[in-house]
TrEMBL record:
Name used for this protein in its record: L-aspartate oxidase
Catalytic reaction(s) noted: L-aspartate + O2 = iminosuccinate + H2O2
Gene Ontology BP, a term: 'de novo' NAD+ biosynthetic process from L-aspartate
This protein's UniProt keywords: FAD, Flavoprotein, Oxidoreductase
């Protein structure tokens, strides 16, 4: 079967759906996604999105410095600056699309009205969030907008297998070589019928997320198998930085259940700097269980990750799980708290 579309978007996370909504203004869009539309890393993201809103105490420069320090010398500074400076506008776009972020009534908290949280590596409160289910709320609003747009067709349970490319013969001196120079769609497997569909498109976007699921232990969803990176590579695209795989050091381990992320925001509610001080506070109790000493901030963490072949610091003791059901966690982090107790 052959289908034609102006824009083929492979993946239904925040990247794919945001792109689909923007380009629908210019033509017909087909979004393919290998499971249900909400099966994505986006939908399971918890803590929130870092962005500068409280300009009385925060600035782009502070956010850039924090990011560079966390990256421990590995960041591309131009990209960091671009992402940081575009953050507030992107958040406002999401709000305009109907995303409900937590707000605060307290005028001393944030001039923006947004309830800003703080996470490890950030010297200021700048995490815009929807409780501890931020990604679920972002995905909900994007899907609602997608469903209302009659220029966008969504094909669920459709797996992109490979890109379709056109090659150009190039003559350099006496040598003629073939180069894959143009992508004109993709072959897509319809899981229900077992049929491979040929989808021809003027523009194809790979928005297939990460590859965390190739590891045995991960907080990533099952769909995160790196297909898009492989497809792009096979089509001749350059790939880079493949050693950077999302790794959450705080996962709940249970022999009979899937790994579940204990949000970084849990850590963010802990001590503001340095190593933990002795004392009976719940923060120290939970954090010392989760984090080995000296791994409080991303800099040292990244350095130790670089050294370690494998790191598995799973949360296996029942004590921290009990703590997640107390100390106000059920109110501010209902998702983490409830899931940890199941
Ligand atoms: C547990 C967890 C918590 C997180 N918490 C945060 C957080 O608090 N803050 C933050 O900023 N980030 C967080 N992240 C990271 C964030 O979720 C991701 O960076 C972001 O959602 C990636 O969006 P994406 O659209 O690129 O990919 P995804 O949301 O993963 O979407 C990829 C899509 O591609 C589809 N797909 C893949 N291969 C194919 C194929 N071959 N054919 C068809 N479809 C395919 C998938 O089904 C999926 O729909 C978290 C991630 C996880 C896993």
């Amino acid at each position: 079967m052959k289908l034609e579309t102006d824009f083929l978007v492979i993946g239904s996370g925040v990247a794919g759906l945001t792109f689909a909504l923007k380009v629908a203004e210019f033509g017909q869009v087909t979004v393919v996604t290998k499971r249900g539309i909400t099966d994505s890393s986006t939908a399971v993201a918890q803590g929130g999105i870092a962005s500068v809103f409280d300009t009385a105490v925060d600035s782009f420069d502070f956010h850039i410095q924090d990011t560079l320090a966390s990256g421990d010398g590995l960041c591309n500074e131009a990209v960091v600056a671009q992402v940081v400076k575009n953050g507030p506008d992107c958040i406002r776009e999401l709000i305009d699309l109907g995303v409900h972020f937590n707000t605060t009534e307290n005028p001393n908290d944030s001039a923006s009205g947004l309830d800003l949280g703080r996470e490890g590596g950030h010297s200021r409160k700048r995490i815009v969030h929807a409780h501890d289910m931020t990604g679920q709320e972002v995905e909900r609003a994007l899907v609602a907008n997608i469903r209302q747009n009659d220029r966008i067709t969504v094909l669920e349970d459709h797996i992109a297998i490979d890109l379709i490319t056109r090659s150009t013969r190039m003559k350099r001196g006496a040598v003629i070589t073939a180069h894959e120079t143009e992508c004109c769609g993709a072959y897509i497997l319809d899981r229900a019928s077992g049929q491979v569909k040929t989808v021809a498109a003027r523009i194809t976007l790979l928005a297939t997320g990460g590859s965390g699921k190739v590891y045995l232990y991960t907080s990533n969803p099952d769909v995160a198998t790196g297909d898009g990176i492989a497809m792009g590579y096979r089509a001749g695209a350059s790939v880079a930085n493949l050693e950077f795989v999302q790794f959450h050091p705080t996962c709940l381990y249970h022999p009979d259940a899937k790994n579940f992320l204990i949000s970084e925001a849990v850590r963010g509610r802990g001590p503001s700097s340095g190593t933990p001080t002795a004392g009976p506070s719940w923060r120290n109790t939970i954090l010392r269980r989760i984090w080995p000493a000296g791994m409080w901030w991303p800099g040292p963490l990244i350095r130790s990750l670089k050294r370690a072949a494998t790191i598995r610091s799973f949360l296996i003791s029942p004590t921290p799980i009990r703590i997640l059901s107390e100390n106000g966690f059920p109110i501010c982090m209902p998702n983490v708290s409830a899931s940890a107790l199941i």
